[in-house]
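Service request form, structural biology core

Requester: graduate student, group of Dr. S.
Request type: structure prediction, single chain
Budget code: on file
Notes: please return the result as structure tokens.

Sequence provided:
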Amino acid sequence: LELEAGWEALVRPRSGNALNRGLGVLNSPGTIDAGYRNEVGVIVFNAGPEAQSISRGQKIAQLAIRPLPVIRLSAIPQAELNLATPRNLKGFGSSGS
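Core staff response, request fulfilled:
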């Protein structure tokens, strides 16, 4: 795989494998950036009750290729942040997991 700068590929699971076989793709979607030059590997997990085998050439994932947006970030001093929300700076799990 070789992507031009400004593009990414996303490795996604196939819904039929999840529905029919209990197979999923870890780290999904997996991102492949434009600097990567090699074969693409897929980490598959089995959430089903039975052992599964995967044959060479079998469809286990799909690849979506899309342009990356150009984003400019600006630092905002903490004193200027609006902290008057139920979550404010609490971070992980603060939305009521």
